[in-house]
Amino acid sequence: MATTNISMFILPIVLLIWVSPAVVSDKCSPHEKKALLQIKQELGNPAMLSSWNASTDCCTWDTFRIECSNTKPYHVSQLDLHGLDLPGPTKIPPSIFNLVDLDELFLFEMPNLTGPIPPQISNLKKLTILYIFSTSVSGPIPESLAQIKTLFSINLSGNNLSGTLPPSLSSLPTISVIFLDSNQISGPIPESYGSFVSKNLVTLALSHNKLSGKIPASLKGLNVDLLDLSWNKLEGDGSVLFGAEKKTEDIRLAGNMFSFDIGKVEFGRNISRLNLKHNRIYGQLPQGLTKLQHLTRLNVSYNQLCGPIPQGGRLQGYFPIDASSFSHNKCLCDPPLPPCK
Ligand SMILES: *[C@@H]1O[C@H](CO)[C@@H](O)[C@H](O)[C@H]1NC(C)=O
Ligand SMILES: *[C@@H]1O[C@H](CO)[C@@H](O)[C@H](O)[C@H]1NC(C)=O
Ligand SMILES: *[C@@H]1O[C@H](CO)[C@@H](O)[C@H](O)[C@H]1NC(C)=O
Ligand SMILES: *[C@@H]1O[C@H](CO)[C@@H](O)[C@H](O)[C@H]1NC(C)=O
Ligand SMILES: *[C@@H]1O[C@H](CO)[C@@H](O)[C@H](O)[C@H]1NC(C)=O
Ligand SMILES: *[C@@H]1O[C@H](CO)[C@@H](O)[C@H](O)[C@H]1NC(C)=O
């Protein structure tokens, strides 16, 4: 009687363990496994994902592309599909947005990845790193990105994104790095980009787009290590981007229509790269340029500058700064250009 009772009690447990050994020991939760298998299917079952198999723990499938957290509660923390061969145009697999515990998402160097970045991206409420670059994704940058309060680094460079810059990105509390360069983004730079909530913003790269309009005066408040606005159609008073108080090391404004008196600009002392070529900047180069002890690159060619080049600091005889750094202006003179008359 007693024996029967015990076996009646144990048998179902033994059966349960035996029937689904994976479920008991899996780090991967059933909903994550389901989402990953759907992703595989949505990508057209690429050969590179042949190890993604329903009968095993997804945390063991492919440690190159799937990373799981080390501590409980276990979750899929990183999905990296970069360089995956897609046989033809493929949309961002919608089941990615069911992996709600992802910390890092990498979709880059996938030329056949097409279609928009769906607003459902904001389902990924814990995302810190979002890299979707060197793909063919198109359409606008979803406004909903600003709802992912954990974002630290965004790289959406080298896609076919269009529309305008979402003003709300400035509200991301811990954003540090923003690359949106080399797309088809148009319209103005939002005023809000002069007052990022994050104290840690170090990079803002918006180059090679179709941005236009006057630079907002509010950008006086933008203070980053790297600011790249080059090769757009921006106009107005770019002098607000400078200031003695700024920490900026690398500032690139080349290939726009900025128009301001460079003589009134105060340069931050940490500037090492200054690229202002191909604009409509006028006036006389300020003496402050000779005080820049870290200057390694300088190009102010193709503007409307005039008068003597200040002598000293790194403006003369500091390779690769040479005559070509100053050429094609209205009437600049003195070394490394010919002497003023
Ligand atoms: C999954 O793995 C099992 C055991 O390793 C194997 O028998 C099965 O064929 C695999 N299924 C697929 C779809 O690859
Ligand atoms: C992209 O898809 C095209 C077909 O549309 C195919 O010819 C090409 O090889 C694919 N490229 C890659 C990198 O998979
Ligand atoms: C961002 O993407 C570009 C490709 O367009 C790449 O060159 C660059 O290294 C990336 N930057 C980071 C920080 O990932
Ligand atoms: C990029 O989008 C434009 C329309 O906005 C389209 O004409 C062009 O073919 C697209 N290019 C690529 C590489 O997808
Ligand atoms: C210049 O760089 C130094 C060292 O990285 C840093 O401590 C300092 O705050 C920077 N200067 C300004 C004006 O931010
Ligand atoms: C400055 O830019 C001009 C125009 O693009 C280029 O020809 C020249 O080589 C550049 N010089 C330096 C030192 O960067």
Key descriptive features of the protein:
DNA_repair-toleration, 22 strands, binds 2-acetamido-2-deoxy-beta-D-glucopyranose, Leucine-rich repeat-containing N-terminal plant-type domain-containing protein, 4-stranded parallel sheet, alpha/beta, leucine-rich repeat, 341 residues, 3 helices
Concise summary:
Keywords: Leucine-rich repeat, Repeat, Signal. This protein is 11% helix and 22% strand. The chain is of the alpha/beta class and 341 residues long.
Q: Could you give the topology of this structure?
A:
Blueprint lengths: L1 H18 L1 H5 L4 H13 L23 E3 L7 E5 L9 E2 L12 E7 L2 E2 L14 E7 L2 E3 L12 E3 L4 E3 L14 E3 L6 E2 L15 E3 L4 E5 L11 E3 L4 E4 L13 E3 L4 E2 L14 E3 L6 E2 L13 E3 L4 E5 L22 E3 L8
Parallel strand pairs: 2-4, 3-5, 4-6, 6-8, 7-9, 8-10, 10-12, 11-13, 12-14, 13-15, 14-16, 15-17, 16-18, 18-20, 19-21, 21-22
Antiparallel strand pairs: 1-2
One 2-acetamido-2-deoxy-beta-D-glucopyranose binds next to strand 6 and strand 10.
Organism: Stylosanthes scabra
Keywords: Leucine-rich repeat, Repeat, Signal
Protein name: Leucine-rich repeat-containing N-terminal plant-type domain-containing protein
